[in-house]
Fold each of these.
Amino acid sequence: MSDKRFKRDTRLGHLGRDPARFDGAVNPPVYHASTVIAPDTATFKASGRRRFEKGETVYGRFGTPTHQMLEDALSELEGGADTVALGNGLQAVVVALLTVAKAGDHVLLADSVYAPTRKFADQMLTSFGVEVDYYDPLIDGAGLDARIRANTVAVVLESPGSSTFEVQDVPALAAAAKARGVATIIDNTWATPLFFRPIEHGVDLSVQAATKYIVGHADAMLGAVTASDAWANRLRETVYTMGGFAGPDDVYLGLRGLRTMGVRLERHQASALKVATWLQERPEVAEVRYPALPEHPQHHLWQRDFDGASGLFSIVLAQPYAPAAVAAMLDHFDLFGLGASWGGFESLAIPSDPHRTATTWEAPGPVIRLHIGLEDPDDLIADLDAGFARLTRAAG
């Protein structure tokens, strides 16, 4: 459903569906397929050329109708030309980078990027002969222009940044890169295309760890990359060459999650705002790093570019609590779990250690990353209140 007459949640309920194609079934079936039989030799020989054609199923590694339904839906939501569904968020980052960069090229990454993105860039990209540099995520367009070299091919953004939630001036940075013929890649997992559409702001490749809010139930791994017109064919060719498609069952769970993502995100946002506002008054907390709060340093950029905020943010503790005191707080929550990932219905609280090379991270105390799930926010506040009591007792 590409009809812009309909509002967001209506479109979420109908995108990536084609009941007439599937005998009237409301949801598309899960296609488990590797081999796809061709009717004749001519068709078989032409199958490689047809892999770019929408609606064609020529080999399992090139995707099935299940994949096409999710990819078409995400392309529509992101405002892009094409989307590829991949096994997880990191794979999506890797595919986006390898779509653009080759040996001898130079890539600039925000100093606040997702830690596994940094690890891939530092260990794998460099081993492929790609030069890697990091930049201050709060750099402006002129500052970014000064960092671009003759061999720079990509600028990687993440807004807000992992753990520390700096909001970048995406339109200005994308414009500066485009003026120099440099591609831009952004990790858009935090906002999803419901709250931010990077391609409309000049970005070339938008990456999502669809494991998070698209799946939304902590039961599947999924990634996605959406490309602008200029990069759509290159992106799909990269995926076909690497062989990185997601499994059909996980893709189906992504389609299922898509239907309720709008209402879930609204609840995540409302609860996160309530909890974050409460946290601002706690003496144990020096800062709540949540872009939707007016006190956030880049709140004006978030307000200008985003349509909402998700349930993920961090708090900076007010003093250098010892690791044992922080563990006393985190180890005994009734509702907040200690676990990687986020975006599901469950609330999470983990210690975070921001890593910087281009800038310096300075804070009065440890950082704790919170994901506010779908539980009642008053219950979550009570759980946090008890956690702060444990923190204080352990600190002596």
Amino acid sequence: MDLFVAQVLAGIATGAIYACVALAVVMIYQAIHHLNFGQGEMAMFSTYIAWQLMQWFGAESGGTLLSLPLYILAFVLTVAISIAGGFLVERTVFAPIRNAPVLSHVAVFVALFLIFNSLAGEIWQHTIKPFPTPFGNGPLTEGGLVSRHDAGMVAVTLVVLLALALFFQFTRAGLAMRASAANPVSARLVGIRVGMMTALGWGMASGVGAIAGMLIAHKVFLEPNMMLSILLYGFAGAVLGGLTSPGGAVLGGFLVGIVENLAGTYIPVVGAELKLPIALALIVVVLVVKPTGLFGQRLVQRV
């Protein structure tokens, strides 16, 4: 029983990261109705920026910081840089090709993946680097089943998700973004700048991805390919919950984390090596059985 509880709790911790990535995927999907294959690499690049800032601020070689305020400063600066970067990518790269064919968008997404991956390897090399955690490495409680870092990941994720929910529900910018995603034509008619709302959505999705990258880097270590499997799990969570439902994508991310851990523990043929195919199989099954996801809305067009 203790093993089951431990695996569920560990799945919730990793599922929190998948939930962040799934939410970022859905935010961009709702803005442009395409999946951003470069989302994980943008998050990875942001994590490298955070690591570089921490080195400049005085990080030790073992992956620990000299003080918590420096970590928080690097964290906040990285999120701000990521939001600005995502905004600029949309304005300079995707706005000009908004009406281009789908394959043009796919080609640009693949190009983003390769560009950010190659730049990270060129600037920071391909050696694995430790990434610090402000939460500590020990158990949360005496003999506890949850580590401090895992508990911190879940706490930060919940705070981010709550802040986003409040933003979309109670702010003018959030309501404008929702209106732009739901009905761009009507939004333009009431004076909403749909293009700017789309760019803001890109920026916020990049910021959420950066948070996910910085939280998970301590567990998987920092290297240019660190987010590849994380992105696939995020895609699985988004598809499971529904690409039209941000809340569903978040829940889907948590479910994927739990299912992944339980499958790797209790199904002998899965083990640690076949966890990723489990996520891919989950995507296929959901698309076949319920293409809109568990909480997605079926789109009906009148002709």
